[in-house]
Each structure stands twice: as C-alpha cells, then as structure tokens.
Amino acid sequence: MTNYNKKQFDIEGGLIDEMKESREKATVRESHKSRGEEAREEEPSIGSSERHERFNRILVIVTLIVVLGCAASFAFLAVGITSALTEQEDQFERSATDLVAKIESAWEDYVHAASIIHGRCRGRNFTRADFRDLYEYITANGLDFQAAQFDPNISHAERDYYEEEARMFYEENYPQVNYTGFRGFNTDESTTVEPRSNSSFYFPIHYMVSEFPVHSLVGEAHV
Length: 223
Description:
- By secondary structure, the chain is mainly alpha-helical.
- Among the domains are: 71-122; 144-217, no CATH class.
- Helix content is 66%, strand content 7%.
- The chain has helices spanning 2-121, 128-140, 159-173, and strands spanning 147-150, 154-155, 183-184, 194-195, 201-202, 207-210.
- The strands form three sheets. It has a two-stranded antiparallel ribbon.
- Helix 1 packs antiparallel against helix 2 (128-140).
- Mean pLDDT is 77; it is low at 1-10 and 219-223.
C-alpha cells in the first residue's frame, strides 16, 4: 500500500511537473507571441511616420519650386515690361526728334524761298513774267507750296499806274477775274473788303502765282 501510494505520488508529482513545464512553455510562447504582435504593430506605425515625413519633405520642395518659379516669372515679366516701355520711350524720342528736324529743315527751306522772292522782287525793274519764272525755279527744287505772292510798297502817286497794269493783265490772261483795283479794310472797324480810300502808300497783292485760282485776293491792299 505504501509502495503503491509512493508510485502514485511520483506519478502525480511528475504530472504536476509536466503541467508546470507546459504552463511555463505556454507562458513563454504567449510572451513571445505578444512581443511579436507588438513588434508587428510598431512596424506599420514606424513606416507610416517615415512616409509622412517623406511626403512633408516632398511637399516643401514642390512648394519651394512653385514659389521660386513664380518669382522668376514675375521678375522676367517685370524686366520685359520695363524694357518694352523703355524701348517705346526711346522710339518716341527718336521719332519726335526726327520730326522736329524735318519741320525745322522745311521751315528753313520756306524762309529761304521767301527771302529769294523778296530779294528778287524788291527792284522796280521786275515783271509778272519774271515772277512766274522765279516761282517755277523755286518749285523745281522740290519745295512744295500752293501759292507765292509779293506785295510791293506802292505809293499813292503810283497807284493809278499799277491798277491799270493789273487790269490789262487780268483782262488778257484771266478774263473771268473782275479786277476792281486796290481793295482792303479802310478802318479798324471795317468788316468787309472794299475799294481802298486814298492813302500815302499801299501793299497790294500785285504778284501772285498759285496752283489754284485765288481771284478774290487779287489786288487786295494790306495797308
């Protein structure tokens, strides 16, 4: 009985040891399993954090590229606009300078032509044919104008002679002209042209050559 109990005790003791060992192994496996699961849970967390940081870096780089590109575009645009405005101003100045030079040159040409007419016509030995030749000489040089005239200083004693000479000239060459002698404004209050009253001298439009008829001006006296 004693031996049997001892065997039974040994068997039970062995079972208890096996059970303890099994529980310990199970505990170790559970511990390893738990740590493995925790490790697997930490791995996605670490990977997600790295992806988030990488995305932030890429976003910063893209933002910098966009900002720098916009800044460069605006800079080039500003330089282009400034250059265009400067070029436009320079072109305007060149055109204005060229136009002023042309006007000054043309003005000098007309002043020179007027000086030629005045110098040539101031003598009394000057005829209408001479004035026509002078007109054609001036226009042959390329100077463009529509009419040329000379108003000689005629005294009251010479009035009848010049009026008769003009009347004969227009009757022969321009019969459509109704020449009535020297005309003009007799007073400062006059508003219409009328035959000139007696004066010590006159400046009538006596010599005139024009591309178109100016019959109403013939014989007008400015004084």
